[in-house]
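Deliverable D5.2: sample structural annotation.
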Amino acid sequence: MKRYIIYCFLIAFAFLLQDMPLQAQGFALEAVRSYPFPSGLTASEQGSRIAWVFDEQGRRNVYVAEGPAFTPRKLTNYTLDDGQEITSLSLSADGQWVVYVRGGEHGAIWDEGETVNPLSDPVPPKVELWSMPFAGGEPRALAEGDEPVISPNSDRVAFIRNGQVWEALLKKTAAAKPLFRARGSISSLEWSPDGKKLAFVSNRGSHAFVGIYTDSNTPIKWMAPSFYKDTSPRWSPDGKRIVFVRTPGTGGAPEAYLEKHHRPWAIWMADVASGEATQLWKAPETLPGSVPNTHGGYNLHWAAQNRIVFLSYHDGWPHLYSMPAAGGEPLLLTKGEFMAEHISLSQDGKWLLFSANTGPEKADIDRRHVARVPVDKPAMELLTPGDGLEWSPVLTGDGATVALITATAQRPPLPSVMSFDKGKVKVLAQDLIPASFPQKQLVTPQQVTYKAPDGFTIHAQLFEPKGGAAKKPAIVYVHGGPSRQMLLGWHYSDYYANAYAMNQYLTNLGFVVLSVNYRLGIGYGYAFQQPEKAGLAGASEYQDIRAAATWLAKQPQVDASRIGIYGGSYGGYLTALALGRDSDLFAAGVDIHGMSDRSLGRITELVAPDRYERAPDADLAAKVIWESSPASSVGTWKSPVLLIHGDDDRNVSFSRSIDMVRRLEAKGVPFETLVLVDDTHHWMLFSNALKAGNATADFFQRKLLRKGIGQR
């Protein structure tokens, strides 16, 4: 009997071990999230000076470097994880001054310039403009404000405060003052090349004008005011002309909601002295010819050789084009089945630098590499091929060095430099990666593809743990956006770098993780990004998520009864849709600031608008929107879920999770919650990011990893 008891104990212990984390190689989430994340990389117009922002576990600071050595130097000294981001980082043309904005949440959909207070301080912090010398010293608060633009003369900065334009001096300590006032909300400030005039956009709701301010004694000059919306003004090198983008104003008969429609846009050129303008180019009247909605939008520039460069999606991929300022057929600069992203114009106007998901390897469609192309001919060169990832290139003012950000599947993103004549990449600030960061323990995700039920090819990244049980639990990760693309390595967005770290952590705990690039995402062309019956028009993209779990269930190393799902924002929405529609397939899920009833706030405008006309498919559209909502599937929801939300969310209202909680309570669905008070969509506090990540991992461990097969 005693021998039998010992035998039973050993068998039970063996089963317990197969579901435990891999302790021998284990690391904490705090360790894999300890890396410094760089953003805002910029260069001065003269010389070889560069600057960027490092977020080191919530402590955000400005760093600078200068050629030829490019030794990183910490310029500011903010020491707290206080949730105050640093954005709009810029260097004066002469490289002597650094200007930045501290505060706000500039990844938000609304109230991006409003204060963020995740520490719940009784006196909330301000959103302020700061400056300091490149050489070092004490930062100086210039004023409350946002969107700074330094004059080409390097002596002053124009910025936005409460929708109007203000001015502050860089070399003197005089108080900032209003520069001028105009009706509407002002944005898109652009100094003339000589620094004597300021172009701007006045958004007036149904329409928008491009204006030119000269001085306090000269009336504002409006560029060809019309019944349209004008934006993105760019000066000619001689300061005599401006190009801008024109789109239709608000109005017209209601269109069918469930159908796709061309969104027209055109490039116009105006004479600054007279204000008269003519159309230079009009986008093709096709669906791909619509307003581009990838990084940087139009990416409009006035380049060297009197050429206008811009980005358009009209050949089915977001590509760069160039045309003479006198007009003519645009020249396609970047031909091929890939996208151009993170685009910058060299200081001399002769080159476009950008990142692209292309290269000699099949896997490069799921990476980013830095490329360049001259503005006057389609002679694109890939500067950084290989199995790493590179993005956000800028050319230094002396034209000698490309500054960029690089990463690999294991090494997190860091600023880097390389010669513009090509050559070896020098990675900067590697000493700032903490010793506790588990670089050698991270896996290399594999590129996988599978077919959705309607035949679409879907790309994904597979993270597989080393060792452990023969049959492992698995998790589907769903990105947000939805216009995003997860990569075969660290991501260029801090939000998705966080997700990549989380996927590595879950893998280290013993889960197989599949990160899915479902349709509506970027990187695979127009038909993929703009599919039929997607989103509110039918959620056709959900079939890609269900197909991911079906694919996982067929893999020999996966326990099909223990497949979980998680995601944030739009990924949270699709997570809730998966749990509501397919609880038999998804055993548990974590819905992070997702959406519940997507008809909320939309139906009145559709079926009972404050006008006689309404959309011809209004009633059907209202029904489809409801059926595309997770709220409509709560009746078949059985699997447990963890809901996480910050109550100052400015992308997805906190009320959306309240709605979901009420519905789950009413149906008796098992759920848990985590509320992060006064934090936003992007976890401005590093400590809150850890709290959300650890709660996610703990939930999956309890529901999928530590329980017996099939138990929930």
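Annotation notes: The longest strand covers residues 558-568. The radius of gyration is 26 Å.
The annotation will be released with the project's public dataset once the embargo ends.
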